[in-house]
Amino acid sequence: MTNGWVDIKNTDMMLIMGGNPAENHPCGFKWALEAKRNRNAKIISVDPRFTRTSAVADLFCQIRAGSDIAFLGGVINYAIQNNRIAKEYLVNFTNAAFVVKGDFKLPADTDGVFSGFDAGKHTYDRSTWNYAGVGGAPQTALAPGALPPLPEKVEYDLALQNPNCVFQLLKKHYSRYTPEMVERITGIPRDQFLKAAELYTSVRKDGDMKKASTIIYAVGLDPAQLRHANYSHRSDAAIAPRKRRARWRRRQRFARPLKHSGRYGHGRPVRHSAGLFEGAHAG
Predict the structure, then answer these.
(1) What values do phi and psi take at 269, rounded to 5?
(2) pLDDT tens string 186-243
(3) How far from chain centre, in Å, is Cα 201?
(4) Which of 19, 64, 143, 196 is 20 to 30 A from 178, comparing alpha carbons?
(5) Please, which residues have CB within 8 angstroms of residue 132's CB and are 6 or more apart in sequence?
(6) Residues 6+ positions from 138 with CB-CB distance below 8 Å
(7) Tens digit of pLDDT for each residue in 65-105?
(8) Can you tell me the distance from the alpha carbon of 22 to that of 24, in angstroms, rounded to the nearest whole number?
Protein backbone atom coordinates (compact mmCIF):
# COMPACT_ATOMS: atom_id res chain seq x y z
CA MET A 1 0.00 0.00 0.00
CA THR A 2 1.13 3.53 -0.72
CA ASN A 3 -1.25 4.92 1.85
CA GLY A 4 -3.71 3.38 4.27
CA TRP A 5 -7.10 2.21 3.07
CA VAL A 6 -8.83 4.44 5.59
CA ASP A 7 -7.51 7.48 3.68
CA ILE A 8 -9.64 6.52 0.69
CA LYS A 9 -12.72 7.83 2.54
CA ASN A 10 -11.38 11.37 1.88
CA THR A 11 -11.24 11.10 -1.90
CA ASP A 12 -13.62 12.53 -4.48
CA MET A 13 -12.46 10.39 -7.42
CA MET A 14 -11.10 6.85 -7.76
CA LEU A 15 -9.46 5.34 -10.82
CA ILE A 16 -9.13 1.60 -10.19
CA MET A 17 -6.82 -0.33 -12.54
CA GLY A 18 -5.00 -3.62 -12.21
CA GLY A 19 -7.03 -4.73 -9.23
CA ASN A 20 -10.42 -5.86 -7.99
CA PRO A 21 -10.54 -4.55 -4.41
CA ALA A 22 -14.27 -5.15 -3.95
CA GLU A 23 -13.59 -8.89 -4.13
CA ASN A 24 -9.94 -9.20 -3.07
CA HIS A 25 -9.85 -6.49 -0.38
CA PRO A 26 -13.43 -6.22 0.88
CA CYS A 27 -12.47 -4.85 4.30
CA GLY A 28 -10.43 -2.08 2.73
CA PHE A 29 -12.89 -1.40 -0.06
CA LYS A 30 -15.51 -0.33 2.48
CA TRP A 31 -13.68 3.02 2.64
CA ALA A 32 -14.21 3.50 -1.08
CA LEU A 33 -17.92 2.87 -0.58
CA GLU A 34 -17.92 5.30 2.34
CA ALA A 35 -16.42 7.96 0.07
CA LYS A 36 -19.21 7.30 -2.45
CA ARG A 37 -21.86 7.46 0.24
CA ASN A 38 -20.62 10.51 2.18
CA ARG A 39 -18.75 12.53 -0.46
CA ASN A 40 -20.50 11.44 -3.65
CA ALA A 41 -17.11 10.19 -4.84
CA LYS A 42 -16.96 8.60 -8.29
CA ILE A 43 -15.31 5.30 -9.25
CA ILE A 44 -13.86 4.51 -12.67
CA SER A 45 -13.08 0.82 -13.14
CA VAL A 46 -10.65 -0.08 -15.94
CA ASP A 47 -10.29 -3.83 -16.31
CA PRO A 48 -10.32 -6.57 -18.97
CA ARG A 49 -13.15 -8.21 -16.97
CA PHE A 50 -16.38 -6.86 -15.52
CA THR A 51 -15.64 -7.46 -11.83
CA ARG A 52 -17.44 -6.84 -8.57
CA THR A 53 -15.54 -3.55 -8.40
CA SER A 54 -16.88 -2.69 -11.85
CA ALA A 55 -20.40 -3.47 -10.63
CA VAL A 56 -20.31 -0.58 -8.13
CA ALA A 57 -18.34 1.79 -10.37
CA ASP A 58 -19.86 4.87 -11.98
CA LEU A 59 -18.03 4.06 -15.21
CA PHE A 60 -16.52 0.83 -16.52
CA CYS A 61 -13.96 0.69 -19.33
CA GLN A 62 -13.12 -2.76 -20.68
CA ILE A 63 -9.44 -2.55 -21.61
CA ARG A 64 -7.33 -4.91 -23.66
CA ALA A 65 -4.90 -6.70 -21.32
CA GLY A 66 -1.43 -5.14 -21.29
CA SER A 67 -2.46 -1.78 -22.75
CA ASP A 68 -2.61 0.24 -19.52
CA ILE A 69 0.14 2.65 -20.61
CA ALA A 70 -1.87 3.81 -23.63
CA PHE A 71 -4.92 4.48 -21.46
CA LEU A 72 -2.96 6.43 -18.85
CA GLY A 73 -1.08 8.30 -21.57
CA GLY A 74 -4.40 9.35 -23.04
CA VAL A 75 -5.57 10.65 -19.66
CA ILE A 76 -2.33 12.63 -19.26
CA ASN A 77 -2.74 14.15 -22.73
CA TYR A 78 -6.40 15.00 -22.05
CA ALA A 79 -5.53 16.71 -18.75
CA ILE A 80 -2.82 18.85 -20.34
CA GLN A 81 -4.82 19.78 -23.43
CA ASN A 82 -7.80 20.83 -21.30
CA ASN A 83 -5.69 22.65 -18.68
CA ARG A 84 -6.92 20.38 -15.89
CA ILE A 85 -3.69 20.51 -13.97
CA ALA A 86 -2.45 21.90 -10.65
CA LYS A 87 -0.11 24.52 -12.13
CA GLU A 88 0.92 26.10 -8.84
CA TYR A 89 1.85 22.68 -7.51
CA LEU A 90 3.73 21.80 -10.70
CA VAL A 91 5.81 24.97 -10.57
CA ASN A 92 6.66 24.85 -6.87
CA PHE A 93 6.87 21.19 -5.95
CA THR A 94 7.98 19.26 -9.07
CA ASN A 95 10.71 19.63 -11.68
CA ALA A 96 8.19 20.73 -14.33
CA ALA A 97 9.89 24.12 -14.67
CA PHE A 98 13.44 22.70 -14.95
CA VAL A 99 15.05 23.07 -18.37
CA VAL A 100 16.64 19.99 -19.96
CA LYS A 101 19.71 20.17 -22.19
CA GLY A 102 19.02 21.25 -25.74
CA ASP A 103 20.52 18.12 -27.29
CA PHE A 104 18.02 15.84 -25.51
CA LYS A 105 15.65 14.20 -28.01
CA LEU A 106 12.31 12.50 -27.50
CA PRO A 107 11.34 9.34 -29.44
CA ALA A 108 9.23 11.48 -31.79
CA ASP A 109 12.40 13.36 -32.77
CA THR A 110 14.42 10.23 -33.53
CA ASP A 111 13.55 6.77 -34.83
CA GLY A 112 11.42 5.88 -31.83
CA VAL A 113 13.96 5.94 -28.98
CA PHE A 114 15.31 8.62 -26.66
CA SER A 115 18.60 10.31 -27.47
CA GLY A 116 21.77 8.42 -26.58
CA PHE A 117 20.56 4.92 -27.46
CA ASP A 118 23.28 2.42 -28.41
CA ALA A 119 21.61 -0.13 -30.69
CA GLY A 120 24.55 -2.51 -30.40
CA LYS A 121 24.62 -2.64 -26.61
CA HIS A 122 20.91 -1.91 -26.08
CA THR A 123 21.81 0.71 -23.48
CA TYR A 124 21.50 4.49 -23.19
CA ASP A 125 24.19 7.12 -22.83
CA ARG A 126 22.18 9.47 -20.62
CA SER A 127 24.55 12.43 -20.75
CA THR A 128 22.01 14.37 -22.85
CA TRP A 129 19.27 13.68 -20.32
CA ASN A 130 20.64 16.14 -17.77
CA TYR A 131 19.27 19.54 -16.82
CA ALA A 132 20.74 22.66 -18.35
CA GLY A 133 22.70 24.73 -15.86
CA VAL A 134 26.09 25.66 -14.48
CA GLY A 135 28.41 24.34 -11.78
CA GLY A 136 28.43 20.95 -10.16
CA ALA A 137 30.82 18.03 -10.48
CA PRO A 138 32.60 17.78 -13.84
CA GLN A 139 31.02 15.26 -16.18
CA THR A 140 33.22 12.32 -17.07
CA ALA A 141 32.66 9.22 -19.16
CA LEU A 142 29.55 7.45 -17.86
CA ALA A 143 29.01 3.76 -17.42
CA PRO A 144 26.17 2.37 -19.56
CA GLY A 145 22.86 3.58 -18.14
CA ALA A 146 24.46 5.76 -15.45
CA LEU A 147 22.99 9.16 -14.67
CA PRO A 148 25.17 12.26 -15.19
CA PRO A 149 25.91 14.53 -12.18
CA LEU A 150 23.39 17.32 -11.72
CA PRO A 151 24.46 20.95 -12.28
CA GLU A 152 24.77 23.11 -9.18
CA LYS A 153 22.35 25.71 -10.55
CA VAL A 154 19.62 24.41 -12.82
CA GLU A 155 17.96 26.64 -15.40
CA TYR A 156 14.20 26.93 -15.01
CA ASP A 157 11.16 28.62 -16.51
CA LEU A 158 8.33 29.29 -14.05
CA ALA A 159 6.00 30.14 -16.92
CA LEU A 160 6.43 26.56 -18.23
CA GLN A 161 6.81 27.89 -21.77
CA ASN A 162 10.41 26.96 -22.54
CA PRO A 163 10.21 24.18 -25.17
CA ASN A 164 12.87 22.22 -23.28
CA CYS A 165 11.40 22.51 -19.80
CA VAL A 166 10.19 19.23 -18.33
CA PHE A 167 6.52 20.19 -18.62
CA GLN A 168 6.74 21.02 -22.33
CA LEU A 169 8.69 17.81 -23.00
CA LEU A 170 6.05 15.86 -21.09
CA LYS A 171 3.32 17.60 -23.09
CA LYS A 172 5.04 16.84 -26.38
CA HIS A 173 5.78 13.22 -25.48
CA TYR A 174 2.17 12.43 -24.53
CA SER A 175 0.57 14.42 -27.36
CA ARG A 176 0.59 11.25 -29.47
CA TYR A 177 -1.86 9.57 -27.08
CA THR A 178 -4.98 10.83 -28.81
CA PRO A 179 -8.40 9.27 -28.15
CA GLU A 180 -8.09 7.54 -31.51
CA MET A 181 -4.76 5.96 -30.55
CA VAL A 182 -6.15 4.93 -27.17
CA GLU A 183 -9.08 3.24 -28.90
CA ARG A 184 -6.82 1.44 -31.37
CA ILE A 185 -4.46 0.10 -28.68
CA THR A 186 -6.75 -0.51 -25.71
CA GLY A 187 -9.97 -1.45 -27.49
CA ILE A 188 -11.90 1.11 -25.39
CA PRO A 189 -14.26 3.03 -27.71
CA ARG A 190 -13.24 6.64 -28.23
CA ASP A 191 -16.39 8.07 -26.66
CA GLN A 192 -16.07 5.78 -23.65
CA PHE A 193 -12.45 6.81 -23.11
CA LEU A 194 -13.36 10.50 -23.35
CA LYS A 195 -16.03 9.97 -20.68
CA ALA A 196 -13.42 8.40 -18.39
CA ALA A 197 -10.84 11.14 -19.03
CA GLU A 198 -13.44 13.86 -18.55
CA LEU A 199 -14.69 12.31 -15.31
CA TYR A 200 -11.26 11.67 -13.78
CA THR A 201 -9.83 15.10 -14.63
CA SER A 202 -13.01 16.87 -13.48
CA VAL A 203 -11.41 17.27 -10.04
CA ARG A 204 -9.29 20.05 -11.61
CA LYS A 205 -12.04 21.56 -13.77
CA ASP A 206 -12.03 25.39 -13.82
CA GLY A 207 -8.99 25.46 -11.53
CA ASP A 208 -10.75 23.63 -8.68
CA MET A 209 -8.16 22.71 -6.02
CA LYS A 210 -10.54 21.57 -3.28
CA LYS A 211 -11.06 18.01 -4.49
CA ALA A 212 -8.77 14.98 -4.22
CA SER A 213 -8.37 12.01 -6.53
CA THR A 214 -6.73 8.64 -6.06
CA ILE A 215 -5.45 5.83 -8.25
CA ILE A 216 -5.92 2.35 -6.81
CA TYR A 217 -3.91 -0.46 -8.37
CA ALA A 218 -2.77 -3.93 -7.38
CA VAL A 219 -0.66 -6.75 -8.80
CA GLY A 220 -2.32 -6.28 -12.19
CA LEU A 221 0.16 -3.43 -12.65
CA ASP A 222 2.96 -4.95 -10.56
CA PRO A 223 6.55 -5.42 -11.83
CA ALA A 224 6.48 -9.00 -10.58
CA GLN A 225 3.62 -9.73 -12.99
CA LEU A 226 4.19 -7.53 -16.04
CA ARG A 227 7.34 -6.81 -18.03
CA HIS A 228 6.46 -3.16 -18.61
CA ALA A 229 4.78 -2.47 -15.25
CA ASN A 230 7.41 0.14 -14.30
CA TYR A 231 6.21 2.28 -17.19
CA SER A 232 2.59 1.88 -16.11
CA HIS A 233 3.62 3.10 -12.66
CA ARG A 234 5.51 6.04 -14.12
CA SER A 235 2.36 7.00 -16.03
CA ASP A 236 0.44 6.77 -12.76
CA ALA A 237 3.00 9.03 -11.13
CA ALA A 238 2.63 11.66 -13.84
CA ILE A 239 -1.02 12.00 -12.89
CA ALA A 240 -0.66 11.87 -9.10
CA PRO A 241 2.36 13.90 -7.88
CA ARG A 242 4.88 13.08 -5.20
CA LYS A 243 3.38 15.02 -2.31
CA ARG A 244 2.22 14.54 1.26
CA ARG A 245 0.42 17.21 3.20
CA ALA A 246 -2.51 17.74 5.57
CA ARG A 247 -5.68 19.68 4.91
CA TRP A 248 -6.64 21.31 8.14
CA ARG A 249 -10.36 21.33 7.45
CA ARG A 250 -10.57 17.59 6.91
CA ARG A 251 -7.20 16.58 8.41
CA GLN A 252 -6.61 14.27 5.48
CA ARG A 253 -3.21 12.97 4.43
CA PHE A 254 -1.81 12.79 0.95
CA ALA A 255 0.63 10.01 0.20
CA ARG A 256 3.53 9.82 -2.16
CA PRO A 257 2.22 9.23 -5.64
CA LEU A 258 3.88 5.90 -6.15
CA LYS A 259 5.86 3.22 -4.41
CA HIS A 260 6.18 -0.33 -5.65
CA SER A 261 4.76 -3.01 -3.43
CA GLY A 262 7.39 -4.31 -1.00
CA ARG A 263 5.76 -7.71 -1.18
CA TYR A 264 7.85 -8.68 -4.18
CA GLY A 265 10.99 -6.79 -3.27
CA HIS A 266 10.15 -3.71 -5.34
CA GLY A 267 10.12 -1.19 -2.52
CA ARG A 268 12.05 1.57 -4.34
CA PRO A 269 10.06 4.74 -5.02
CA VAL A 270 9.78 5.71 -8.69
CA ARG A 271 10.63 9.27 -9.64
CA HIS A 272 8.87 10.89 -12.56
CA SER A 273 9.00 14.27 -14.18
CA ALA A 274 5.89 16.12 -13.12
CA GLY A 275 2.64 15.16 -11.42
CA LEU A 276 -0.38 16.83 -13.00
CA PHE A 277 -2.78 16.53 -10.10
CA GLU A 278 -2.51 17.21 -6.40
CA GLY A 279 -4.28 14.39 -4.64
CA ALA A 280 -4.01 11.03 -2.94
CA HIS A 281 -2.60 7.95 -4.63
CA ALA A 282 -3.18 4.47 -3.30
CA GLY A 283 -1.61 1.17 -4.21
Answers:
(1) -65, 150
(2) 999 999 999 999 999 999 988 888 898 988 887 656 544 444 545 555 665 666 543 2
(3) 12
(4) 19
(5) 99, 100, 101, 102, 151, 154, 155, 164
(6) 149
(7) 889 989 999 999 999 999 999 888 889 988 999 999 999 99
(8) 6
